TrEMBL record:
Residues 168-246 form the DUF3131 domain. Residues 56-139 form the SbsA Ig-like domain. Residues 335-549 form the Glycoamylase-like domain. Transmembrane segments: none annotated. Keywords: Signal. This is Glucoamylase family protein. Gene3D superfamilies: 1.50.10.140. Residues 1-20 form the signal peptide. It holds the Pfam family Big_5.
């Protein structure tokens, strides 16, 4: 190759080399991707959970597994993974890796067993750190509801003995909490001087059951009832009807609400139901019992039922009104219309020997000319009357403490069917548990009005259910569904007894979903339990009330038929 050719080749190679260098499109290396430290999975007692989830029915020593997207710096677990109870107290924990080869997993254990039927919160916060020093990208919280302790809290006894225990202990509410001046029942165990008219009527009936079972002597029962009656003779009343609440020391009205500071006809009905039952029971010829009967008659005959038809100048209406106030007259304007707890109001109004009302008032006002009928079927049970699903169970209790529904019919319903099917609908609703409330079962059921941990006081029913069970609902339904009610009584006493069973029987209500248990007792809930257990066992209060000659006459005048009339 000539020198000239060689030189040309070198120049060409140089040019190619330069072009190749100048046109290099290889991208620079990417910077390292930051680590994402994320909680991938939470398992509590075998239940997979996510942020905000509630794990229910959890063992008191639950295995807890946390799976992260990167290995965890275990020195940061103790200060950033914790469990607190509903009061904010921290539960002692231990942490470890279940396998040495997988440091993405943290196993959490409680050092001491959690409490049964209690709420806790598991928190994993964002200061938890990976082994590379990366903090967790988001906080996680999981609610934990621990399981029911199924062991018996009291020794097993016969069903009859258990009913004795429940009646006797529940009755103590009316004995121990009777107002020292008036003898009337306090509205609740924290009511001070506030006494309840309707609850006192229930208490008078409970006292009869107690005397009949020798929980108290007949002499003491008569004395206590006379104390109540003597007080009522001088207490505030309006056309013979009493207010919902009275001051138990002075006898003056204790307003129930802004305009409710006068007569309450329905509460008066429950009071008179009790007093008439007492008149029939205390039938001895002694001076004390004779005087008691005379005073009860005086109160009974003084109630002007017909006045509550609200005659404002154009003639009385064919309906009874619930309230009247000396300050607000008929402003509340609530008609006593069925179906609800107030059947007793119309029965007594029709039965009054002094101020009776005609059948048209019952048909138009109470039965709404037949519009109180239902006739639909719920969970396999046809409901003759009332709102869909039956409403709260006190509808089947308050008037039927005295009225015996067995074999009772009129133009609108068979009341034995009404009370039984209402109860069974309520029972089956809780068993089906469509809302998935913790604890509902064939043993844990009963929706009615009671205290409520969320709303203070609520009329619970299948259409107004937040997980709150009221023991009075199932206990007071014993005559209607004895097997279902007895199962509930045993569950409340033996299984939940450490939380429900107190000095005055079962507490007013509980909500297992919220791990809430009332500490209250209400006269209108304790009384029906004592009375309806007795009606189931002997029919005592039914027999007494239905033996009143005025009641027989009044119920027949309304078109009722029964073997007891």
């Amino acid at each position: 190759m000539s020198a000239k050719a060689y030189t040309g080749l070198l120049i060409m190679l140089y040019v190619l080399l330069c072009c190749s260098k100048n046109n290099d499109s290889t991208p620079p290396p990417e910077p390292p991707v930051p680590e994402v430290f994320h909680l991938n999975n939470i398992t509590v007692d075998g239940q997979h959970a996510s942020n905000g989830f509630k794990c229910k029915n959890v063992k008191t020593t639950p295995p807890i597994m946390l799976v992260f997207s990167a290995p965890v710096d275990m020195t940061t677990t103790a200060t950033n993974i914790f469990i607190r109870d509903k009061n904010g107290a921290t539960v002692p924990l231990t942490f470890n890796n279940p396998t040495p080869t997988d440091s993405n997993i943290v196993e959490v254990k409680v050092k001491n067993a959690l409490q049964n039927i209690s709420l806790y919160k598991l928190t994993v916060n964002t200061n938890l750190t990976s082994q590379k020093g990366t903090k967790l990208d988001a906080e996680a919280n999981v609610n934990i509801l621990t399981a029911i302790d199924s062991t018996d809290k009291f020794p097993r006894i016969s069903d009859s003995a258990l009913l004795d225990v429940v009646q006797k202990q529940t009755f103590k509410y009316f004995w121990d909490f009777a107002h020292p001046v008036s003898g009337m029942a306090r509205e609740r165990n924290t009511s001070g001087d506030v006494v309840t008219t309707g609850g006192t009527g229930f208490g008078v009936m409970a006292t009869i059951a107690a005397a009949n079972r020798s929980f108290v002597s007949r002499t003491d029962a008569v004395s206590q009832t006379q104390k109540i009656v003597s007080f009522l003779k001088t207490a505030d009343s309006f056309h013979g009807a009493f207010p919902h609440w009275l001051n138990g020391a002075t006898g003056k009205v204790q307003p129930f609400s802004d305009k409710d500071n006068g007569a309450d006809l329905v509460e008066t009905s429950f009071l008179m139901q009790g007093l008439l039952t007492a008149r029939q029971y205390y039938n001895q010829s002694s001076t004390t019992e004779t005087q008691l009967r005379k005073d009860i008659d005086s109160l009974w005959k003084a109630v002007d039922w017909s006045w509550f038809r609200k005659d404002v100048g154009s003639g009385p209406e064919n309906v009874l009104y619930w309230h009247w106030s000396p300050n607000y007259n008929w402003d509340i304007g609530l008609r006593v219309s069925g179906w609800n707890e107030a059947l007793m109001t119309y029965v007594l109004a029709a039965s009054s020997p002094t101020h009776t009302v005609p059948k048209v008032v019952y048909d138009n006002g109470w039965a709404q000319n037949g519009n109180m009928r239902n006739g639909k079927t719920f969970l396999g049970y046809q409901l003759p009357l009332g709102p869909d699903w039956g409403g709260p169970l006190f509808f089947a209790h308050y008037s039927f403490l005295g009225i015996n529904p067995n074999g009772l019919t009129d133009a609108y319903a068979n009341y034995q069917t009404q009370t039984i099917n209402h109860t069974l609908i309520n029972n089956q609703y809780c068993i089906s548990n469509a809302a998935n409330y913790f604890g509902y079962s064939s043993q844990c059921w009963g929706l009615t009005a009671s205290d409520d941990g969320r709303q203070g006081y609520l009329a619970h029913s299948p259409t107004n259910d937040n997980g709150t069970i009221s023991p009075t609902a199932a206990v007071s339904s014993l005559p209607y569904a004895p097997n279902q009610s007895m199962a509930a009584i045993k569950f409340f006493y033996y299984t939940l007894g450490d939380k429900l069973w107190k000095d005055y029987g079962f507490v007013d209500a509980f909500n297992l979903e919220d791990a809430w248990f009332a500490d209250s007792f209400l006269a209108i809930d304790q009384g029906p339990q004592v009375v309806m257990i007795e009606n189931y066992r002997t029919g005592l209060l039914w027999n007494l009330f239905m033996s009143c000659p005025e009641i027989k006459t009044g119920m027949i005048s309304l078109g009722f038929q029964s073997p007891r009339l």
